Structure formats: C-alpha cells, structure tokens
C-alpha cells in the first residue's frame, strides 16, 4: 500500500505540474466521476475521458467525450496532454501503457490513488430486501447487526472524511445493503452534495417503496443490478419480483426526467450460463430509456466462499446453486487470478464503513467479526488506518493466494469477449 501522506501534492502544486496541458481522465466510471469533480472543485477543467470499454463508446459523461486509448495516443503527446488514471482495477496496467507511449508517471501521469487516501464505501443500510444466492445476504447465515445510519451521524462522518482526506470526490452509499431502504436517504444525499461531494447509489429496485424523493435529491450516479429477463431474473436475484422491477425501472427514468436529467444511470448485468441472450433485451431497454449498460461474469461473493472452495471446505446449497449457474467457474477464475497475484489489490485503498461506524477489514470479505481496527471510524486517524492495512497478515495471505484479484477477473470485459459470453461483447477492446 505504501501511502505517504506528506507526499500528496497540494492543489496549487497539482496545477503547476499540469501547466497548460489538456487534462484527460482515464476511467469513465464512478472513480472517474470523482476525479472529474475533485479537479473541477480545484479549478482544473478536463478535456475528455479515456476508457477501453466498448460498452461506453458513444457515451458522454458530464458533457465530455469518452475516447478509446488508441485514438488518444495517436493524437496526444506528453507536451500537450496530462493523464489522471482513475481506474481502480487496472491502474498499474494503464500506467505501463502510458509509459510505452512516452508518458512519464509523476510528470505526465498521476494515479488518482496518489492524491486521495481511500475510496469511501458507506453502507447506510444494514439490511437488504433480497436474498440473492450469489451474495452473502443470501448465502451467509451470520451477518453484521441490522440497522440504518442516521443523517446526523452521516453528517459528522463526512466532516471527518473531508478533514482527513480533502481529495475525496465521491461517496459510495452502498455495499451489501439496499440503500433505498434507509428512509433518511434523501437527507443523506443532500448532506453529501452540501459537502461538495458526488454520490453513488446501487439498488435492486425490486420493492414496493416509492423512491421519487430519492431521485429528487439528485444522486449523481445510480446503478441497477440485474441478471436475466423475466423468470430468469428471479432465480439469481432471489426474492426479486420481475414485474415490480420493470415498473420501477420505468419510474426511475420518469423521475430522472422530472427531477434530475443529468443523473447517470447504469444497468449492471450479471452474466450466468442461462441468460446470455437476455442482454439484447436489456440493451434495447437501455437505449429506449437513455441508460448505460455494463456487464460482468456473475461472481460468487463474498471472498469467504472463494477461500472455502480453495481449501476444500464444504459450502452450502445456495453457493452450490450459484456455481452451477455460473458462466465462469471458480476454478478458472482462480487460475487466472493466481497468475496475476503480483498485481496490486484494488480493495486495500477502500474503506467499507458500516452503518454503525465499524470499519470492515475489506469490502469483499464478509465475516461479521472481521474489522480493520477495533475502534469506530470516528475514533481512528488516517495514520492508524494505513498502519493497520500495511501490517495486516490477513491481507498478506489473501494476496499471496491471488484471491485479491478474483473479482477483477470476473469483471474483465476482454475475457467476456474472448469467451464469447455475450452477443454484445464481440470486438471489445
């Protein structure tokens, strides 16, 4: 991890480094949104985004184009362009690509993680309405305490985050919980924006709750998690209701148009072995409603289950059902993950803060007793958090076995194209 707080440049130092070069952000998802917002907050405009995902081509984010890497490098030089890498999974590979094209890291390129200490993921809802078999909410028998973060606690939390980590640009308001179950979410969103931060939500949208007040509070980015169409959706989004989902998807578009046309909406599609062709219907719906479509091979979460399989321990029938439906099997995922175990861990630069202010050791492990520090976030300094991460024997074991790269393999769009896992993935770059 090796974070040196005193080496983070001040905004004026960053402006001096950039000079009069055109700024490009590499990564057009919510890390990129955060980078864009932070730069704007400090008076630095950007020219465009760069992203290798074919799914994003032709889209615009905050009025800026999204370019593929090859056209960018064909026209840019270190004298004319400056790059801020805001891609958590692939920052190391992107930095190598920049070097091959003559861009020097530290002079012509910065990695977002060299500006901020952590990416903050706050589970404002310690509960979920679904019991998906691929998620610990459905396949784990023990959980952290149920509850919801209040707006007053959240306000104090943000005050501390910005005091500790002033380059923070976005707050992710979910992890294993369903944030729209928190009745104070509209106020929480208002507090987020009053602090000069962007907000990210992810929802299953498979409930009767009316959420117009949430959209009226203007979240920046809204993800809908889906898998399959009609009856196939209800298998893997276990406990979900297809008709209710469709009603709410269209309501979301209506509420967006009424209250917040600039809101970025992403449908996040989980690929199983029985829903390959269903993505055509989702693409048509996204085109109709003006949503973006992203996808990944359906993962088996949490990493606790991956570890159990690696060690030959028994797993429950919900985990077994998930594995039987997966397009990309755990054994192949771990073979690929192990081959890149030398690469960085995306998750060690994240903090998952639970609704009760506990700090989970990792956002992708689930064991309820596994915390990074025994104290609450409010009682812990950045130096203590960094020291705890760097000294973690648990992290060292995870990285030694390549488990830290597991979910990155599931999300690899190039692998999806190579395996022809989706009809839309042909030609992915």
Account of the protein in words:
It comes from Allochromatium tepidum. With about 425 residues, the protein is α/β, with parallel strands linked by helices. It folds into 2 domains: about 10-115, NAD(P)-binding Rossmann-like Domain (Rossmann fold, 3-Layer(aba) Sandwich); about 120-420, Aldolase class I (TIM Barrel), CATH 3.20.20.70. Helix content is about 35%, strand content about 15%. The chain has helices spanning about 10-20, 30-40, 70-75, 90-100, 135-140, 150-165, 185-195, 210-215, 230-235, 240-260, 280-290, 305-310, 315-325, 330-340, 380-390, 395-400, 405-410, 415-420, and strands at about 20-25, 50, 60, 65, 80-85, 110, 120, 170, 200-205, 220-225, 265-270, 290-295, 350-355, 360. The strands form 2 sheets. It has an 8-stranded mixed sheet with strand order 12-11-10-9-8-7-13-14, sandwiched between helices. Helix 6 (about 150-165) packs parallel to helix 7 (about 185-195).
């Amino acid at each position: 991890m090796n974070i040196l707080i005193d080496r983070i440049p001040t905004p004026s130092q960053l402006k001096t480094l950039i000079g009069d070069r055109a700024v490009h952000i590499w990564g057009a998802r919510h890390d990129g949104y955060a980078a864009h917002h932070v730069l704007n907050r400090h008076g630095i405009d950007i020219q465009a985004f760069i992203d290798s995902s074919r799914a994003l081509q032709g889209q615009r984010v905050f009025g800026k184009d999204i370019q593929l890497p090859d056209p960018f490098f064909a026209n840019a030089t270190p004298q004319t362009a400056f790059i801020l890498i805001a891609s958590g999974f692939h920052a190391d590979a992107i930095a190598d690509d920049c070097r091959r094209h003559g861009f020097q890291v530290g002079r012509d390129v910065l990695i977002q993680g060299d500006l901020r200490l952590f990416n903050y993921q706050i589970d404002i809802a310690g509960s979920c309405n679904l019991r998906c078999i691929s998620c610990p909410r459905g396949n784990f028998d023990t959980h952290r305490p149920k509850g919801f973060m209040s707006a007053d606690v959240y306000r104090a939390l943000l005050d501390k985050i910005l005091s500790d980590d002033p380059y923070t640009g976005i707050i992710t308001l979910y992890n294993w919980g369903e944030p729209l179950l928190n009745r104070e979410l509209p106020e929480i969103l208002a507090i987020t924006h009053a602090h000069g931060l962007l907000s990210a939500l992810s929802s299953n949208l498979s409930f009767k709750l009316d959420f117009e007040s949430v959209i009226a509070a203007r979240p920046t980015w809204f993800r809908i998690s889906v898998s399959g169409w009609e009856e196939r959706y209800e298998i893997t989004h276990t406990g979900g209701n297809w008709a209710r989902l469709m009603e709410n998807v269209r309501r979301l578009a209506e509420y967006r148009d009424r209250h917040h046309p600039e809101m970025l909406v992403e449908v996040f599609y989980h690929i199983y072995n029985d829903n390959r062709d269903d993505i055509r219907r989702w693409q048509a719906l996204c085109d109709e409603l003006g949503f973006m479509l992203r996808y990944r091979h359906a993962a088996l979460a949490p990493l606790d289950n991956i570890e159990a399989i690696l060690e030959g321990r028994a797993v429950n029938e919900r985990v077994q059902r998930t594995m039987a439906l997966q397009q990309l099997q755990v054994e192949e995922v771990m073979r690929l993950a192990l081959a890149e175990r030398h690469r960085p861990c995306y998750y060690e630069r994240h903090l998952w803060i639970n609704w009760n202010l506990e700090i989970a050791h990792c956002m992708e492990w689930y064991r309820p007793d596994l915390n990074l520090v025994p104290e609450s976030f409010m009682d812990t300094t950045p130096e203590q958090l960094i020291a705890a991460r760097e000294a973690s024997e648990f992290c060292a074991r995870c990285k030694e076995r390549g488990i830290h790269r597991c979910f990155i393999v599931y999300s690899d769009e190039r692998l999806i194209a190579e395996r022809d896992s989706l009809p839309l993935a042909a030609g992915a770059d």
